[in-house]
Amino acid sequence: MEVPxxxxxxxxxxxxxxLLWVGCACAYDLSAQKMIRSxxxxxxxxxxxxxxxxxxxxxxxxxxxxxxxxxxFQMLALQNIELLxxxxxxxxxxxxxxxxxxxxxxxxxxxxxxxxxHYSTLLSELIRQGRLSIGAKSKERITYHDSCYLGRxxxxxxxxxxxxxxxxxxxxxxxxSRERGLCCGAGGAQMFKEEExxxxxxxxxxxxxxxxxxxxIVALNCPYCKIMLSDGLNTADADTQVKLYDLSELILQxxxx
Length: 257
Prior knowledge:
Strand order of the largest sheet: 2-1-3-4
CATH architecture of the largest domain: 3-Layer(aba) Sandwich
Helix content: 40-55%
Largest sheet: 4 strands, parallel
Radius of gyration: 18 Å
Oligomer: single chain
């Protein structure tokens, strides 16, 4: 799948609607790569113009700041901001809520002010506008996991649910959802740390809440959540009964062709 580079588009005098920020997880994790590939397909179907930085994209620095390494965070952030500003970037589309949060709320303090959009918000708008035509709603039971950095961190609960409700007749909420939603266990750079022995992993706790809904499908909008909850389902021997999909993957399955 060929994805246009921002540099090439700018050199041709084109101005895409969005810079698509891929993020580290979607660049390196095989499961998360399905998310970005699905999103790219949907953007092309809907006629949304975009480009990526390609090899010029670095980590936003979010994990470094959460782990307490402010020096590395600012080094990465300032390099990214210099590049983004040199390209005249105005709008950034993010898949990862961690990237979304830091680009939206923390980069402005260092001189990087952009309109930052999470892909769940854009997908909801594209469905409402009819630019993504959805077929008949599925009768399968589905549940939705709130990612911390999109939900509690930025107050976005409705857009992802609007997408799910456009695809499925029944959305079953978990015991803890919205403002009370339970983390997948990866936030705050915990993704890269070992949990204490003798304690139940957060991902396992969330998995138990997923299984309790009776849903066979879980909708997600964060690559970290997908990685952690996949591990939780595998540990609980429930990975064959319950399937994880991000919103882009689900929409592709339900397009009215």
